[in-house]
From TrEMBL:
The protein, known as: RecA family profile 1 domain-containing protein
Keyword Protein biosynthesis: no
Organism of origin: Solanum stoloniferum
InterPro entries (alphabetical): AAA+_ATPase, DNA_repair_RadA, P-loop_NTPase, RecA_ATP-bd, Ribosomal_Su5_D2-typ_SF, Ribsml_uS5_D2-typ_fold_subgr, Rubredoxin_2
Keywords noted in UniProt: ATP-binding, DNA damage, DNA repair, DNA-binding, Hydrolase, Metal-binding, Nucleotide-binding, Stress response, Zinc, Zinc-finger
GO molecular function: ATP binding; DNA binding; hydrolase activity; metal ion binding
Taxonomy, superkingdom: Eukaryota
Coiled coil location: none
GO terms for biological process, alphabetical: DNA repair
Region called Disordered, residue ranges: 67-91
PROSITE patterns in UniProt: RECA_2
Signal peptide: none
Xref: CDD domains: RadA_SMS_N
Length: 593
């Protein structure tokens, strides 16, 4: 308890010393009001300045203003105030990076001063805490916690200045908003024409993922690995929206890049053969500057590439920091809702594949899309993770070409090898149907049984536990002598089989390789295998069967329990074969022709 008492004693003696300063000192007290990261902090420092000095030492800032009124000394003489380099208006007190400085020349203690408490604020991310820590708990920055005193005096005026500065570029409503009845919200709105349509095969594929088109005033966040094609995707979307083939004519769309110059973007657009007159390019990282430029254009959409490169003046931290990313996204969200202009954001991803920045970023936006793709493959998948205006089960399939992304009309061709005629090379191959969201894909499963192999099991693309169970059921229930055989399983194109609908195809592929009996071309297997050897139904059986029929398959093996639910489907020339268990399936498929 001695250390705090000594500190208080030193502070009291220092304060008495400052109160005895010469009356001719014009700046015996400096009070700074710092608005940083949506908070207002005060800290006071009294320092004697010689008359011949005009600097503010370590507290010197550009644009500080001294009070215009002269201070009277105890003798009654008016002492002129030292003039600063700028005017004495409070509006000019705003310094760089959104900090507001208030400089007063009154050395006397003000009456009625509000209480203050000490707050430690991280200079990188804006995180605040009641006590000092060597490492910031939010961004793990070392020695970044700075001390401030959070006061209540002039709190309203400080926020008014910040409000006027940071929101001057947002549109202001002349009429104050009032609560509206739910029945009155949709009056006069044609739901069929409410969304902005995207024309062409590419636009239809993107529109499917968005839920049927682009919603006015929505905020869309697109993430993905570096080089997967995020900028290419948004440049093509911007060109389609700007052309407005199904929207009554062209309209301006602004593409803003914080990573590339407009010449680089123009070069990519020329390679992709995009020549839309209403597509505007702009290179900037200042959010206020970007939104000021939008006021000169009657925009139909806005694209920001990327959210980690832009910053907002008045927010602590550098571009890409937690506070900057969150505040910039909230500003763009308010802009989108007030102007009814759709805004697209590109987001960087971390090593784990998640969008970089605070997790709240995905809660702020309306739609979150992830673009996926393998380095060795030219195909790209656009997956919906969050969608306030549609389903998250939709999936878009594209192929990267020299002229940009092209929509894939038949996604199953990605996972199927070239089918040959019935021959020995087709032994051990079976086709099944999997669901990814609302899209059905046909994938190929390969199996290889080797007698006397030193490796008992090798699985790629199939869950190891699931594969062991299927092999054990074939041994026990179907009577296959697989104990002395090494079994190798593989899913073509590196797909991971995570659902149980492929169990029957895995078992058929193993039987085909073990019996050395090639499966006929044009046969598919759908079903789950139980421990008793029974074949169970799986969800969305009608969607899977429709995909098989559409691709022209001649025969499809399904569970017996799902046969009645498919009676209303138009099967065309496809034969549906229902089986109760594995033995029945083997007797039907592997009998001599």
């Amino acid at each position: 308890m001695q250390v705090p008492n000594m500190q208080a004693l030193r502070a009291l003696r220092f304060q008495k010393h400052l109160l005895n300063l010469p009356p001719t000192n014009p700046l015996s007290s400096l009070r700074f009001t710092v608005i940083c990261s949506s908070r207002q902090f005060h800290f006071t420092r009294r320092k004697h300045f010689p008359e011949e000095s005009t600097a503010l030492t370590e507290y010197a800032v550009q644009g500080w203003a001294a009070p215009s009124a002269a201070r009277e000394n105890p003798s009654g003489e008016n002492v002129p105030q030292r003039e600063s380099k700028s005017s004495a208006n409070y509006s000019n007190v705003l310094g760089s990076k959104g900090r507001v400085y208030e400089v007063t020349g009154n050395g006397n203690k003000k009456k009625g001063k509000g209480k203050s408490k000490t707050v430690w604020v991280c200079s990188d991310c804006g995180y605040d805490d009641g006590q000092w820590w060597g490492i910031c708990k939010q961004c793990n920055g070392v020695n970044t916690m700075k001390r401030f005193s959070e006061g209540v005096e002039h709190l309203t005026s400080g926020f008014e200045v910040l409000e006027n500065v940071t929101r001057s570029w947002l549109p202001h409503q002349s009429v104050r908003a009032m609560p509206t009845k739910l029945t009155d919200v949709n009056k006069g709105i044609n739901q069929s024409n409410w969304r902005i349509p995207l024309s062409g095969l590419f636009g239809a594929e993107v529109g499917r993922v968005l839920g049927g088109g682009l919603v006015p005033g929505c905020l869309v966040l697109i993430g993905g690995d570096p080089g997967v094609g995020k900028s290419t995707l948004l440049l093509q979307i911007a060109a389609i929206v700007a052309e407005g083939c199904d929207m009554g004519g062209p309209a301006p769309v602004l593409y803003v890049s914080g990573e590339e110059s407009i010449e680089q973007i123009g070069n990519r657009a020329d390679r992709m053969r995009i020549g839309t007159d209403e597509l505007f390019l702009y290179a900037s990282t200042d959010v206020e500057d970007i939104l000021e430029k939008t006021q000169t254009l009657s925009l139909r959409a806005l694209v920001i590439d990327s959210i980690q490169t832009v910053y907002l003046r008045g927010v602590t931290g550098s571009a890409g920091g937690l506070s900057q990313v969150k505040e910039c996204t909230e500003v763009l969200l308010r802009f989108a809702k007030k102007t009814n202009i759709p805004v697209f954001l590109i987001g960087h991803v971390t090593k784990s594949g998640e969008i970089a920045g605070p997790r709240v970023l995905e809660h702020i936006v309306d739609v979150v899309l992830y673009m996926e793709g393998e380095k060795c493959s030219s195909h790209r998948l656009l997956r919906s993770v969050k969608n306030r205006f549609g389903s998250t089960d939709e999936l878009g399939v594209f192929e990267m070409s020299q002229s940009g992304l092209q929509a894939v009309s038949n996604p199953s061709e990605m996972f199927l090898s070239e089918q040959q005629s019935d021959s020995e090379f087709l032994a051990g191959l079976a086709v099944t149907v999997i669901m990814d969201g609302s899209r059905a894909f046909l994938i190929e499963i390969q199996a290889l049984c080797v007698a006397g192999s030193s490796v008992s099991r090798q699985v790629n693309g199939v869950q190891a536990g699931r594969a062991e169970m299927i092999i054990s059921v074939l041994i026990k229930q179907a009577g296959l002598k697989l104990q002395e055989n090494g079994v190798f399983l593989n899913v073509v194109s590196g797909v991971s089989l995570s659902e149980t609908a492929g169990d029957l195809a895995v078992a058929a592929a193993i039987c085909s390789s073990f019996l050395e009996f090639p499966l006929p071309v044009g046969i598919a297997f759908i079903g789950e295998i139980g421990l008793g050897g029974e074949i169970r139904t799986v969800p969305r059986m009608d969607k899977r069967i429709n995909t098989v029929v559409k691709l022209g398959y001649k025969k499809c093996i399904i569970p017996k329990s799902a046969e009645t639910s498919l009676s209303a489907l138009d099967l065309g020339d496809t034969e549906i074969v229902a089986c109760r268990n594995l033995k029945e399936m083997i007797n039907i498929v592997f009998r001599k022709r």
